[in-house]
Amino acid sequence: MDIKKHSTTLISIALLLLWIPVGVDKLFHFAVFKAGILRQPFSNSLGWVLIYTLPVLELATALCLVIRRLRLIGFALSSLLMLAFTGYIGIALLGGWGKLPCGCGSIISGMSWGQHFWFNLFFLALSVLGYYLQRKTHRNTRCQAAGNEGLVGQKTTYKI
Amino acid sequence: MKMKTFFLKHAVAVAAIAIASLSLMSFGLEKTTDETLFFEYKPGNIADPYSKQNVENVAHWEPTSAPCPSPDNVLACTIEVPKANTIGELGLELDDMKVKLQTSSASSTPTLFRVDDTGAIGYSNPVNRATP
After folding, report:
1. Helix (H/G/I), strand (E/B), else coil: B122
2. What's the pLDDT at B1?
3. Is residue B89 exposed (0-12), middle (13-18) or buried (19+ Cβ within 10 Å)?
4. Which residues does A57 contact at the CB level (< 8 Å), separation at least 6?
């Protein structure tokens, strides 16, 4: 139980090391991020949706990971975001976009697309693992709570 | 002891505050002045990609992290550009009002153009590469 709890704490911190700088970078360099997204090989209307939702989603993920009661949602959001990013880069690497899109405006812009893919895959695995462990902890806590309620119920019945 | 217990109990929140503070500080202190960037010639699938007209077209140049590794003097490859000479100073697209590319053809291959240093406007250190 303790190992699980410490593991989720460590995974949360590792994910915070990713999502906070990435989200803050997008807000600080909003113009660069905006221009970078609009150069990607998808429609501008989707680009505009992403421009306003991505930084919010990234920072919301970080916030959910910090608040213990919302940590499960945080891991789920982190997994979904990483899945989308990894899939996008995977398609790019397979030549699905015709020409490799520019990775402008990212704090990890020094990486090649191949390195970026493995980096994302690692954080995707971490997010999924975090979700799995947190869900187990959640279930155990709920079972314990239900058990305690049952005992209380029994006692009450006995008294009546 | 109480302090230690507090930090262990709220490890994620403490880490989040530390990471957020460091991120805000580092992005806030970032220098944006006199920064130079590298741009690589990437014409894509077009006809006659190394013609004079295409090489001199600033739209065919994209940001890259480093200059071309094996310089030769035949085909246009990379140039170094001050960030101030990019559109909106964002470092993503060359500003054609500030960057005028100078080209010349390799004598043996007149249809292939390279970037020149002579008469360069808005850029420096052109690196040309060998034919593939």
Report:
1. coil
2. 59
3. middle
4. A77, A81
Q: Does B71 touch chain A (CB under 8 A)?
A: no
Burial of A90 (0-12, 13-18, 19+ CB in 10 A): middle
Average pLDDT, integer, range B67-77: 82
Q: Kindly state whether A16 is in contact with chain B, defined as any CB-CB distance less than 8 angstroms.
A: yes
Cβ distance B63 to A104 less than 8 Å, yes or no, reads yes
Mutate to test the interface with A, among B8, B21, B23 (most CBs of A within 10 A): B23
Please judge whether A35 and B19 are an interchain contact, meaning their C-beta atoms are less than 8 angstroms apart.
no
Tokens linked to A41: 């090989």
In this predicted structure, what is the pLDDT of residue A137? Answer: 81
Of A11 and B47, the one with more pLDDT: A11
The pTM of this model reads 0.63
| Across B85-97, average pLDDT | 83
What DSSP letter does each residue of B52-67 carry, written as one string? HHHHT-GGGEEEESS-
Asked if residue A157 has pLDDT above 50, the reply is no
